[in-house]
């Protein structure tokens, strides 16, 4: 077994790059079969040439030399000092690697990953055992490689990612178009089209950059053309879980929309050795140490926000030593899943740690898990059904601001907030006050009977905890485009007035409903500014007595002393509170009641600047979003997103800017997308696209 838990303020000190246990190779080249070379940075134990070791690959488009160097400089030395190598690879067409990338996760990118695994296993400093690690994009890369079962790949660490790209990625959720697709598209453009470093690739850098710029395409428009589950989303998703044959450690955060993947992988690949760690965090690692010599406000690399965090790298190193070195260290003993039970929403107390405790399950699903079923009656949640009634709801496009993002980026303003303002505009169903605490662990299941007066309709369902004072805490949510009720690949319109029985599964949650509180289900048709509105204003009818919710209970007698070191109080006194009780934070409202205009702006057009002392570079970045909607008109919606990146390298400045504007009619999406790149102020690429795209039941 692992040692018992310890509570720490900042974790173990970071291992320095010049630690004598560590050897760093700043750049090496990995040849691909088509002649393209991928650039990589290598961290090894100092004695790896005489004692080959297991090596972990992190395969990303996020520029190992500058953009993500701050993070690699923490993880690489930590793993190397623990006896494990880390190979940080720029995927083709990114960073200092050659070639061109057109879109995410295409066949050349995935084929390259298999080549990199095989190449690594052949190196003199590798013992032939390879792992893959990553968060977000890196998680996808590891899962996609594991699905192909290359013989050298023994284990992966997958943080904040998914093996099902259409089901719960950043593009669509429940068949609904996400605003996050626009945001990620613009960010993707300015990252992937950045220049290589002339000091690494030499005078060919201009030609390599030119190839990248020539390949620019309107990525938001391209993704927007695939509104249902099709080959675009199937590629890069796992379809045959039986092929998986490696060990897996899943990391997830309850403020992240990817959270469902951890438990789903355990359910669908029970033959693989697996562990899961699910905390109160956003889209972040559980916790990294600050860089050597850092004091005061936790560095951006710190992660584990909101707290409490976990001192992650020592735990990860033990996992790698087990699967790449064969060390019998007990890392796989004990419960397979640890989750942080939230006694209050993370944003309610931030920057203080989230109240709660770690709980565990010996298996997943838990053995003999109990479920609490409650029926949606006329405004109430009860153990048994009352005579059916009908509750009607006219879509209000201003519902959703209290859940302002499909996942939280780490910015407290993106965390889910107190819900009573949105609840007041929705259909709500409350239980009686609970006589005892109820601990939820897993995905709630909503079984609803609904009618609509329009052929395209959405359901946004929220599970909340209501306090005696009427405040409403977010716990979980689910969204479904009802045309996708049977099949994401073949959506079919609703027959107006017909009743449909539909099932929605909420986000994984680990939460205590306190004695004296009430369980609430809140239902609306709109979720703005997260999902795009339906083509027409909808009147939705829910049939009570025939609708229910099923809540998975945490196992009895769960362990509360975790076998890892927890990080407490790390952000207290350093970060600003989240706007938990401000539903309309950043929103301006104008116009008469019933026709009010809501405008949300966030970010800035002014770049934040970061020095990279190790390379002498200066990086700049900015993002700005604007979301506009009138409460009574779904086709008043407008989303705008702009991202910029700049690179000051060896006295030369390269800038990239990407911007998209999306509007709609009842029948079409209206896209306006731009991309601009400059070199020392001179324009080197200027592209502008407009597209009128038919709505495909979205």
What does this structure look like?
The chain is an alpha+beta fold and 698 residues long. The chain contains 13 helices and 35 strands. The strands form seven sheets. A ten-stranded mixed beta sheet has the order 2-3-5-4-6-7-10-11-13-14, sandwiched between helices. Strands 15, 16, 17, 20, 23, 26 and 27 form a seven-stranded antiparallel beta sheet that branches. A hairpin with a 2-residue loop joins strand 31 and strand 32 (633-649). The radius of gyration is 25 Å and the shape is globular. The mean pLDDT is 96. This is CocE/NonD family hydrolase.
The Rg value, from CA coordinates, equals 25 Å
Largest sheet: 10 strands, mixed
Could you say what the CATH topology of the largest domain is called? Rossmann fold
Q: Which class of secondary structure composition applies to the elements?
A: alpha+beta
Spatially, the strands of the biggest sheet line up as: 2-3-5-4-6-7-10-11-13-14
Low-confidence stretches: none
Query: Which geometry do the CA atoms define?
Result: globular
Strand portion, in percent?
A: 35-45%
State the distance separating the first and last CA atoms: 50 Å
Tell me the CATH architecture of the largest domain.
Answer: 3-Layer(aba) Sandwich
Overall structural domain count: 3
Number of strands: 35
What would CATH call the homologous superfamily of the largest domain? Alpha/Beta hydrolase fold, catalytic domain
Helicity range: 10-25%
Instruction: Indicate the CATH class of the largest domain.
Output: Alpha Beta
Instruction: Please count the helical segments.
Output: 13
Let me know the average pLDDT. 96
């Amino acid at each position: 077994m692992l040692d018992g838990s310890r509570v720490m303020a900042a974790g173990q000190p970071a291992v320095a790059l010049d630690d004598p246990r560590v050897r760093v190779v700043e750049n090496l080249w990995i040849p691909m079969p088509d002649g393209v070379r991928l650039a990589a940075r290598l961290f090894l134990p100092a004695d790896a040439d005489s004692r080959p070791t297991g090596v972990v690959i992190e395969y990303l488009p996020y520029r190992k030399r500058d953009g993500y160097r701050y993070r690699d400089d923490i993880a690489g030395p930590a793993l190397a000092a623990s006896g494990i190598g880390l190979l940080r690879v720029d995927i083709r067409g990114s960073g200092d690697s050659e070639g061109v990338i057109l879109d995410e996760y295409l066949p050349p990118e995935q084929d390259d990953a298999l080549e990199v695994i095989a190449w690594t296993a052949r190196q003199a400093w590798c013992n032939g055992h390879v792992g893959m690690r990553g968060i977000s994009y890196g998680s996808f890369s590891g899962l996609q490689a594991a699905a192909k079962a290359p013989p050298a790949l023994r284990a992966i660490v997958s943080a904040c990612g998914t093996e099902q790209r259409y089901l719960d990625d950043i593009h669509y959720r429940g068949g609904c178009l996400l605003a996050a697709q626009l945001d990620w598209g613009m960010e993707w453009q300015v990252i992937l089209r950045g220049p290589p470093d002339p000091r690494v690739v030499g005078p060919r850098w201009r030609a390599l950059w030119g190839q990248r710029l020539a390949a620019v395409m309107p990525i938001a428009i391209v993704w927007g053309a695939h509104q249902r589950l099709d080959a675009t989303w199937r590629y890069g998703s796992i379809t045959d879980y039986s092929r998986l044959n490696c060990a897996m450690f899943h990391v997830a955060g309850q403020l992240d929309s990817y959270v469902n993947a951890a438990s789903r992988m355990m359910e669908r690949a029970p033959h693989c050795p697996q562990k899961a760690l699910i905390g109160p965090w956003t889209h972040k690692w559980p916790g990294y140490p600050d860089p050597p010599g850092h004091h005061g406000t936790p560095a951006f690399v710190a992660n584990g926000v909101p707290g409490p965090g976990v001192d992650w790298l020592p735990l990860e190193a033990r996992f790698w030593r087990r699967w790449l070195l064969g060390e019998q260290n007990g890392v796989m003993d004990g419960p397979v899943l640890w989750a942080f039970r939230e006694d209050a929403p993370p944003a309610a107390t931030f920057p203080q740690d989230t109240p709660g405790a770690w709980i565990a399950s010996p298996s997943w699903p838990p053995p003999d898990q109990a479920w609490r079923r409650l029926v949606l009656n006329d405004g109430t949640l009860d153990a048994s059904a009352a005579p059916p009634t009908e509750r009607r709801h006219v879509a209000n496009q201003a519902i959703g601001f209290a859940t302002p993002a499909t996942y939280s980026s780490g910015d407290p303003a993106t965390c889910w907030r107190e819900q009573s303002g949105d609840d007041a505009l929705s259909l709500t169903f409350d239980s009686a006050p609970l006589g005892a605490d109820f601990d939820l662990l897993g995905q709630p299941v909503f079984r609803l009977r609904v009618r609509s007066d329009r052929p395209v309709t959405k359901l946004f369902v929220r599970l909340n905890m209501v306090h005696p004072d009427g405040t409403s805490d977010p716990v979980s949510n689910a969204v479904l485009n009802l045309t996708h009720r049977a099949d994401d690949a073949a959506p079919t319109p609703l027959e107006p007035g017909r009743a449909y029985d539909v099932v929605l599964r909420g986000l994984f949650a680990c939460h205590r409903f306190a004695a004296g509180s009430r369980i609430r289900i809140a239902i609306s048709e709109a979720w703005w500014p997260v999902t795009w509105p339906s083509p027409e204003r909808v009147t939705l009818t829910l049939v009570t007595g025939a609708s229910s919710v099923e809540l998975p209970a945490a196992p009895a007698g769960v362990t509360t002393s975790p076998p890892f070191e927890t990080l407490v109080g790390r952000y207290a006194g350093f970060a600003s509170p989240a706007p938990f009780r401000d539903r309309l934070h950043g929103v301006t409202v104008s116009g008469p009641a019933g026709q009010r205009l809501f405008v949300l702006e966030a970010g800035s057009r002014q770049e934040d600047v970061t020095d990279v002392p190790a390379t002498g570079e200066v990086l700049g970045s900015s993002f700005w979003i604007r979301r506009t909607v009138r409460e009574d008109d779904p086709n008043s919606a407008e989303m705008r997103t702009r991202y910029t990146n700049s690179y000051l390298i060896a006295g030369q400045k390269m800038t990239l800017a990407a911007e998209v504007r999306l509007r709609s009619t009842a029948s079409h999406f209206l896209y306006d997308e731009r991309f601009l790149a400059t070199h020392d102020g001179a324009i080197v690429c200027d592209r502008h696209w407009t597209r009128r795209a038919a709505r495909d039941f979205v």
